[in-house]
Write a structure and sequence with these properties.
InterPro entries: Cupin_2, GPI/OXD, RmlC-like_jellyroll, RmlC_Cupin_sf. The chain contains 1 helix and 10 strands, in the order H-E-E-E-E-E-E-E-E-E-E. With 131 residues, it is mostly beta strands. It has a single domain, classed as Sandwich (Jelly Rolls). The longest helix is centred in the N-terminal third of the chain and has 4 residues. It is globular and about 50 Å long.
Length: 131
């Protein structure tokens, strides 16, 4: 083994707080969207499970890490910098670190999307905070 190798011995002992996080525990306010902050659950990633009606979506913002979207149902128009793309059920899209972005449900029904943050915590800077 060289000095750059890391070894890990597997174990059968899971932490006592590891397991399922109920959806209700992740709900944001009275809406249907849920927020999972990885650090709170021993995970290295965080996510939003979005459940938006037509016309809904977050304002323009950016992150100090990449974000990946998986469209589970519906149609999203995603703005990345000056680009606009459309993602539909089954599509995956990624925005690079530091690029202003937003999305909106442009379909006729619900938009259900997993927004995966490559970070154990969610860090967002909103465009309207910079005015």
């Amino acid at each position: 083994m060289n000095a750059a190798e890391i070894t890990l011995a597997p174990t059968m002992q899971a932490p006592p707080d590891a397991g399922v996080v109920p959806a209700e525990a992740l709900r944001i306010g009275t809406g249907r969207t849920r927020r999972f902050v990885g650090r709170e659950h021993g995970a290295a990633v965080s996510y939003f499970f979005v459940d938006n009606d037509p016309g809904q979506g977050p304002g323009l913002h950016w992150h100090p890490y990449p974000e990946t979207w998986v469209v589970l149902e519906g149609t999203a128009e995603i703005t990345m910098g000056e680009r606009r793309i459309v993602a539909r059920t089954g599509d995956t899209a990624t925005v690079p670190t530091g690029v202003w972005h937003r999305f909106e449900n442009v379909g006729d029904g619900p938009l259900r999307m997993l927004c995966i943050h490559a970070s154990a915590v969610i860090v967002q800077t909103w465009a309207d905070e910079e005015d």
